[in-house]
Design a protein that fits this description.
By secondary structure, this protein is mainly alpha-helical. About 70% of the residues lie in helices and about 0% in strands. Helix 2 packs antiparallel against helix 8 and helix 8 packs antiparallel against helix 9.
Length: about 450
């Protein structure tokens, strides 16, 4: 085993992925140093590829002290069984990470940005590398357990575990695609106010994410992870937990973040932007408190009653503080989005959740809260923007539907159903917001609005 024989290997991979987080600052400065730039870009992918090749050789060669050979295959396994363990075991995780890293490097060659200016291409590559660096760190901590990279001192005479089904490979592919397309949405949305060169990337990523996220949610709700006791032991099955985390993240990005970015492009007056952001922050704070408290109350390890309320208050406070703190980043020059403060507030919220899940099992309580908060964020923004345009009927319908779903969620007694209602809530809010946007962009409606504005001006 490569990682077991070389103690420096996994720490070097961690540092290489960590260095990618600073790609927006290092990318342009390394253009004059081509050899350093090549090493910087390809160091993490090559290390992950080394892990994957080493694992393949050990499994095909039936290395007796390899954990997957000793515990799953045994010494009499066929080549097909070895390949099944390679593609459905830890090798699936390594392959997904390798695909994410390599895609980030080649992202400027995507058909949607292939003919963009050098500045836009450099921006897309550096931001995709930073995005991949952040999520690779999360995956390294959650999925790369020490036992998977340590040789067994004493191997059992017979295998003690069954190989995973091929469905694991499908789930790994779905989660990798969701990560890649979420990075595309995040990168494109930050550059849309500069020029229109990332608009096509943005639209295609949204369409693909909607399809893949729908399949991922359907798949996840068929697994054994959604039981009443899962929330008290969320890391019992790390790969499924990571899949849930990524699916929630992608759902937030494709519904709340993407639609909010488009709606911000319609806002004309800065006063309406400030009003919408202030209302969104307040709505997110209240929604997070009630949702997390409700989930904690049904998970007995966090107490009931007042104890659960304190758990909800603490995690909601951490979530809100991170989002508000991220709003100061436009002062440092990160202001390419339509409304930079709102863009960073949303990004701060959604990126805090992976960090929270790594620090404590209580961080998993934020997943339904993030979905419910994303729903009300989009509704508030649509409602405020509707005051400048023709109709508030659809935003009002969205408010009533969201309030009804929130009450239903608070009244449920199982965490699984609470999460399901949260998914329905953000999906319905996104659907109504999309219908309202298409209605407002209708040429006849725009003409009528323009005529009414001219009449008021006269």
């Amino acid at each position: 085993m490569l990682a077991a024989s070389s103690a420096w290997y996994l720490p070097a991979l961690f540092l290489g992925c960590f260095s990618w987080v600073f790609a927006p600052f290092l990318h342009s400065s390394l253009l004059s140093r081509p050899f350093v730039r090549i090493a910087y870009r390809w160091f993490p992918p090559l290390l992950v590829a080394g892990l994957l090749v080493s694992r393949a050789l050990d499994l095909v060669g039936l290395e007796p002290n390899h954990p997957e050979v000793a515990l799953v295959l045994g010494q009499n396994a066929s080549l097909f069984e070895s390949l099944q363990v390679l593609f459905t075991g830890q090798g699936a995780t390594e392959g997904g990470l390798l695909a994410l890293l390599v895609f980030s490097i080649f992202s400027p060659r995507l058909p949607s940005v292939r003919h963009a200016t050098p500045a836009t291409s450099a921006y897309v590559e550096s931001r995709m590398m930073a995005f991949a660096g952040c999520w690779s760190l999360v995956s390294l901590v959650m999925l790369f357990e020490q036992g998977a990279y340590s040789a067994l001192d004493v191997a059992p005479t017979l295998p003690t575990m069954q190989p995973s089904s091929w469905s694991v490979l499908i789930l790994a592919g779905l989660i990798t695609l969701l990560l890649i397309m979420s990075g595309e949405i995040l990168t494109a949305s930050a550059w849309m106010s500069m020029n229109g060169e990332t608009d096509l990337l943005f639209k295609r990523a949204i369409m693909k994410t909607v399809v893949v996220a729908s399949i991922a949610w359907f798949w996840l709700f068929q697994t054994e992870m959604f039981t009443d006791d899962w929330w008290s032991r969320p890391m019992a099955e790390p790969r499924l937990s990571f899949a849930l985390l990524v699916t929630v993240y992608a759902t937030w990005m494709v519904i709340t973040h993407a639609l909010a970015t488009v709606l911000e492009g319609l806002q004309e007056a800065s006063s309406s932007q400030a009003k919408a952001l202030g209302l969104c922050v307040g709505a997110v704070a209240l929604t997070s408190f009630f949702t997390v408290s409700s989930i904690a109350d049904t998970t007995h390890v966090y107490g009931t009653g007042v104890d659960a309320q304190f758990v909800g208050w603490r995690w909601a406070a951490f979530l809100l503080f991170t989002g508000v703190a991220a709003m100061v980043l436009p002062l440092a020059g990160f202001d390419a989005a339509h409304h930079p403060e709102a863009w960073w507030f949303r990004t701060g919220l959604v990126m805090f959740v992976p960090l929270a899940t790594l620090s404590s099992s209580g961080g998993w309580l934020l997943l339904p809260a993030l979905l419910q908060s994303g729903a009300i964020y989009l509704i508030v923004q649509t409602f405020v923007l509707g005051g400048q345009h023709t109709s508030r009927r659809l935003p009002l319908l969205a408010v009533l539907l969201w309030a009804l779903l929130l009450l239903v969620m608070l009244g449920l007694s199982t965490s699984k159903l609470k999460l399901l209602v949260s998914v329905v809530s953000i999906a319905s809010s996104g659907g109504i917001g999309f219908i309202w946007f298409r209605h407002e962009r209708n040429p006849a409606v725009e003409k009528q609005r323009l005529e009414s504005d001219m009449e008021r001006a006269l």
